[in-house]
Amino acid sequence: MERQFRIYRYNPEVSPTPSFKTYTVDVQPAWTVLDALNAIKWDQDGSLTFRRSCRHGICGSCGMKINGKNGLACEIQVESLKGVITVEPLHGFRILRDLVTDMDGFFAHIEAVKPWLIAGTPPTDGERLQSPEDRKQLDGLYECILCGACTSACPSYWVNDDFLGPAALLKAARYVMDTRDEGFAERVDVLDSRNGLWRCHTIFNCVEACPKSLNPTEAIVKLRQKLTALKI
Amino acid sequence: MMYRWHPGYIAWLLNRVTGLAVTLYLGVHIWVIHHLGQGREGFDHVMKFIQSPVTMVFELLLIGAVLYHAINGVRIMLVEFAGVSRHQKAVFVGVLGVAGALFLAAIVVAIPHITAH
């Protein structure tokens, strides 16, 4: 079945002005948007540039805006979309070329919250075991694949890209809420900074945008409660 | 720039707009009160303008803005302290319902005053 894809094109070496170009693709049953993008790149226009890797919704590389909604190109079935399919890069990030955005700042924010287990004492029995109940507290926090869809949709991030953003704060919550972690004090300075937790205005765009149905706002609220309790 | 229309975004946008409206009203209120310094005649003159039907319609809209802003504030507190972020859409509908009902009551009370002029 033939479908039309209206794709954002930008190459600063050719033109400073971005534009949209429409391609017609003979889409096969069960194709994802990524399959269609690959078909365009391989058969029609080799200059089309986009990131992709695992094509199984795990690596987070192919995060983009498809028909106005952030998502993973490898997870969205073409059949689920109506009309001409518009594909744009994630908003809020600097666009390098076509659908490729500059994610350096995004990953710097992730690193700033120290996304690893911080424990003051060595494990007593080889592994740091955790009860099933304690482990369950991490559900909804550990599944983030760092695609950037949430941060890209955040108005607080649009006006200030120094704001850590929902992805980094969700990642912080994943470790702060881990009963084996002892690093909250080490993370407080960055979480309690002017570009930390308090810049979230609970708009819930991040929740709407997350392709993994996670709830960064809830994680941010829990961190704010923990921080407030610490101050009181 | 915006992402998509959804209850959380609309709630935030309305909160900003009503917050700005209430702040603007504060300036107008101070401007009105400062006429007290011009004596009875000056104050009566500005009050005549304030009590006109057009101004009273704006006052009614101000009541709507204050109602939404205050009740949405309760929603924000519930999100922050009562763990309702997963149900925020339903809570927003509740905010619109309560604010709307109170605004309707305000309209019913205000209409005789507006039409009396």
What is this structure, in a nutshell?
The complex is a heterodimer of chains A (232) and B (117). By secondary structure, chain A is of the alpha+beta class. Helix content of chain A is 32%, strand content 14%.
What do these coordinates show?
- The complex is a heterodimer of chains A (232) and B (117).
- Chain A folds into two domains: 100 residues, Ubiquitin-like (UB roll) (Roll), CATH 3.10.20.30; 128 residues, Orthogonal Bundle (Fumarate Reductase Iron-sulfur Protein, Chain B, domain 2), CATH 1.10.1060.
- The mean pLDDT of chain A is 96.
- Chain A is α+β, with helices and mostly antiparallel strands and 232 residues long.
- Chain A has nine helices and seven strands, in the order E-E-H-E-E-E-E-E-H-H-H-H-H-H-H-H.
- Chain B has 117 residues and is mainly α.
- Chain B has a single domain, classed as 3 helical TM bundles of succinate and fumarate reductases.
- Chain B contains four helices and no strands.
- In chain B, helix 3 packs antiparallel against helix 4.
- The longest helix of chain B is centred in the middle third of the chain and has 29 residues.
- In chain B, 15% of the residues are buried.
- At the A-B interface, helix 8 and helix 9 of A face helix 1 and helix 3 of B.
